[in-house]
UniProtKB/TrEMBL annotation:
Listed InterPro entries: MFS, MFS_dom, MFS_trans_sf, NO3_transporter, NO3_transporter_NarK/NarU-like
Top-level taxonomic group: Bacteria
Subcellular location as annotated: Cell membrane
Protein's name according to its UniProt entry: Nitrate/nitrite transporter
Family of the protein in this entry: Belongs to the major facilitator superfamily. Nitrate/nitrite porter (TC 2.A.1.8) family.
Length: 401
């Protein structure tokens, strides 16, 4: 397998469009987290309220991912993406012109969940253009759109410091519009787009045990990544007394590791297998989060978070190297379901950190809890991997015959 195979085996323009759509959508999805320090100042939020505010778009994205996953399979990813971007403009306009009460803020967060649902569109759109041996890499490249978090954490605090968080949300409409135009021009649905099925058929994947296993694994890898991405700015301000801009820079550094190493996780998984890669990564996450729980000096905790986020990002790529092997025909729906599980994980993590901080006066117990969760995921992976390998070996033998 060579990287150059991506040019000859699929549709590079669609792969780029999928990445760009996911990138800008992801940036918008985590905006409340990036602007959390400024929003907290306006509303005087408690630690638990901080966790809930930044987690609301993540939880809403979980629901909308299932919806957009169904729409992707029934009407095609291009139409679904155009609809998603159109709806995403609504909370940005709401934040620009209103958003002065806490209930409004929660409603904005819910609607921002539509941008997070872009995951259930972008990945199937890219995957369907490429053969199985390139799907880990192709989905990793499209999934690297979670680097949009970098844009939010790097530029969001700076713009909010100059213009306020309301104007900053309005400015996000500019890259959204540019992406909308590029997507319409370049993106193309794959010829392998499956025929629409009866609605009830899409929910049959819930009957498969593997669906739930993938949900558990992804709720830890992606949930950990997006949950930390949304909450770390406030963590750095609270624990290390950084300014909002400084906190954003440190978060950007950590998020970069998770974003840019996602394709690496998919690429390595194509080579040696997603199960092996995930096993090492879950252990890495557990060790790093245990180290973070000690609340070491700023340099040390940044290094631990960098490596931990790198492991989570690579884990995202590894999980979705495995998913198409098990669910080929239902890739749109299963992407939505597993992605939703990742969003649910991302909802709980900020709430765990915020609630533990409020209960104990320290973030240490929250990070210890996350370390234990990573070890539980590792144990589950070991239990189910044997049956996966056996099933896939039987499928390979059947093909040879």
């Amino acid at each position: 397998m060579k990287l150059s195979d991506l040019k000859t085996s699929g549709h590079p323009k669609t792969l780029f469009s999928s990445f760009l759509y996911f990138d800008v959508s992801f940036m918008i999805w985590v905006m409340l987290g990036a602007l959390g320090v400024f929003i907290t100042q306006d509303f005087g939020l408690s630690p638990s309220q901080k966790g809930l505010i930044v987690a609301t778009p993540i939880l809403a994205g979980s629901f909308f991912r299932i919806v957009l996953g169904i729409l992707t399979d029934r009407f095609g990813p291009k139409r679904t993406a155009i609809l998603g971007m159109t709806i995403t403009s609504v909370p940005l306009l709401w934040g620009l012109f209103a958003g002065t009460t806490l209930p409004e803020l929660y409603m904005i967060g819910i609607l921002l969940g539509v941008s997070g649902a872009s995951f259930a569109v972008a990945l199937p759109m890219a995957s369907r253009w490429y053969p199985p041996h390139l799907q880990g890499l192709a989905m990793g490249i499209a999934g690297a759109g979670n680097s949009g978090t970098l844009l939010a954490t790097l530029f969001g605090p700076r713009l909010a410091e100059q213009f306020g968080w309301h104007i900053t949300m309005g400015l996000a409409l500019i890259p959204l519009l540019i992406t909308f135009i590029i997507f319409i021009i370049l993106a193309k649905d794959a010829p392998s787009q499956p025929a629409p099925q009866p609605l009830a058929n899409y929910f049959k994947v819930f009957a498969h045990r593997d669906t739930w296993f993938f949900c558990i694994l992804y709720s830890v890898t992606f949930g950990g990544f997006v949950g930390l991405s949304s909450f770390l700015s406030m963590f750095f301000v609270d624990e290390y007394n950084l300014s909002s801009v400084q906190a954003g820079d440190f978060v950007t550094l950590c998020v970069a590791a998770g974003s840019f190493f996602r394709p690496v996780g998919g690429f390595i998984s194509d080579k040696v297998g997603g199960v092996k890669v995930l096993s090492f990564l879950f252990i890495g996450v557990a060790v790093c989060m245990l180290g973070v729980s000690q609340l070491p000096p700023l340099f040390a905790i940044t290094a631990l978070l960098f490596v931990g986020m790198m492991c989570l990002g690579m884990g995202n790529g590894a999980v979705f190297q495995l998913v198409p092997q098990r669910f080929q025909k239902e890739i749109g729906m299963i992407t939505g379901i597993v992605g939703a599980a990742g969003g649910i994980g991302g909802f709980f993590l900020p709430n765990i950190l915020g609630t533990m901080k409020e209960m104990t006066g320290s973030y240490a117990s929250g990070f210890i809890t996350f370390s234990i969760i990573a070890l539980v995921a590792f144990s589950i992976l070991l239990l189910v991997s044997h049956s996966w390998k056996k099933a896939w070996k039987m499928k390979e033998d059947a093909v040879k015959i």
